[in-house]
Amino acid sequence: MLKLFKTIKKAGTKTTLKYPFVPIEIRDDFRGKPEHIPSQCIACAACTRACPANALIMETDAQNNLRRWEISFARCIYCGRCEEVCPTKAIKLSPQFELAVTNKADLYEEAKFTLAHCSECGEAFAPTKAVAYVQDLLIQAGMDSQDPYLGAPLNQCPSCRRRANMLSASNILLTQSHQTTEEE
């Protein structure tokens, strides 16, 4: 027993922190609550595909012209995959770790985005912000802002774009190549 008291005295008196009365120092690489910045988000759904816990969902409601993004902090495992794959850095892991709530609805966060419509058929095909983001990337890459590709093809749904790019059967010339060898 005396040996135990000597060990305790050598270790010192400060063995624990007085948390929650004294704040805990958080390291820079701490992975806390994911913070979503809707103004930066293009609703591309890269985060929802990368989330191993299925804490992120994205639903498209074409009738109401909306795409809804939602995160469940109850399901999130704070791995940081959503932050890694986001092309616009709209998700960042914060140092916040105290996530206790009294209302279950507080464990969910959502954002809504409008959809762009196809210039040919009128069908909703992508978030408006995603189409604008692609257009900005093409201009930054050196494409002329007056280029016809930035107009119609960017504002078409995939099926109308495919239909516009298909070759008609009368323009296709099929030939068969036959090589002869000396043995023939």
From TrEMBL:
It comes from the Bacteria. Residues 32-61, 67-96 form the 4Fe-4S ferredoxin-type domain. GO terms for molecular function: 4 iron, 4 sulfur cluster binding; metal ion binding; NADH dehydrogenase activity. This is Hydrogenase-4 component H. NCBIfam families: PRK12387.1. Pfam families: Fer4_7. Gene3D superfamilies: 3.30.70.3270. InterPro entries: 4Fe4S_Fe-S-bd, 4Fe4S_Fe_S_CS, NADH_quinone_OxRdtase_chainI. One of its GO terms (cellular component) is membrane. Keywords: 4Fe-4S, Iron, Iron-sulfur, Metal-binding, Repeat. One of its GO terms (biological process) is aerobic respiration. Transmembrane segments: none annotated.
